[in-house]
UniProtKB/TrEMBL annotation:
Higher taxonomy: Eukaryota, Metazoa, Chordata, Craniata, Vertebrata
Segments crossing the lipid bilayer: none
GO biological process: glyoxylate metabolic process
Entry GO MF terms: hydroxypyruvate isomerase activity
Xylose isomerase-like TIM barrel domain span: 2-181
Protein name, as recorded: Putative hydroxypyruvate isomerase
Length: 195
């Protein structure tokens, strides 16, 4: 079933011209002990990722794996940290598989964002953001300093998209005020940047 889902996802991605697909890791079964099933789950995930990577390579597409925190968002999700994701990507050994690093999940599990961004930068295929802990706009009250993070990403040479995976506190468009402010602080006109 997941292979049919992947085939459908490829067709959708081709239709909208999106070269990247998020390949989800699945959940620890209800009632199972995470440590007891971890080895078997990793083996299955690696096999599935190789299959997906080879299929995506035929379409010149990239597969992304995203660590999702199991402290708040999804207690049973198998893939939880960038460290775990990097180890799995190394075992899979496919150049068209990359890390989708959602800084919300990364901060909750691991913190240490600057070092994690620097360490895992060569593996990163997509970045997502949300403020912690509320999962709202980057300029809402919280733990993360996004102007610093954006400058760090620029200094590392990140040229990809930054996905805004947050729940707007109110109106979506008003909620994008943080982006206008950021552009202005950088001397850019609204939308006057390819980033």
């Amino acid at each position: 079933a997941s292979r049919q889902g992947l085939a459908a996802a490829v067709q959708y991605a081709k239709a909208v011209g999106c070269p990247r697909i998020h390949l989800m890791a699945g959940r620890v079964p209800m009632g199972a002990d995470r440590a007891a099933v971890a080895g078997e789950m990793e083996t299955t995930f690696i096999e599935n990722l190789r299959y997906a990577a080879d299929l995506l390579a035929q379409e010149d597409m990239i597969g992304l794996v995203e660590p999702i925190n199991n402290r708040i968002t999804d207690p049973r999700y198998f893939l939880n940290t960038p460290h775990q994701a990097a180890a799995i990507l190394e075992k899979v050994g496919r150049p068209n598989l990359k890390l989708q690093l959602d800084l919300f999940h990364c901060q909750i599990m691991d913190g240490n964002l600057s070092r994690n961004l620097e360490t895992y930068f060569p593996l990163i295929g997509h970045i997502q953001i949300a403020q912690v802990p509320g999962r709202h706009e980057p300029d809402s009250p919280g733990e993360l300093n996004f102007p610093y993070i954006f400058e760090l990403l620029e200094s590392l040479g990140y040229t990809g998209y930054v996905g805004c995976e947050y729940a707007p506190k109110g109106d979506t468009l008003e909620g994008l005020g943080w982006l206008r402010s950021y552009w202005e602080s950088r001397g850019l006109q609204h939308g006057g940047t390819s980033k």
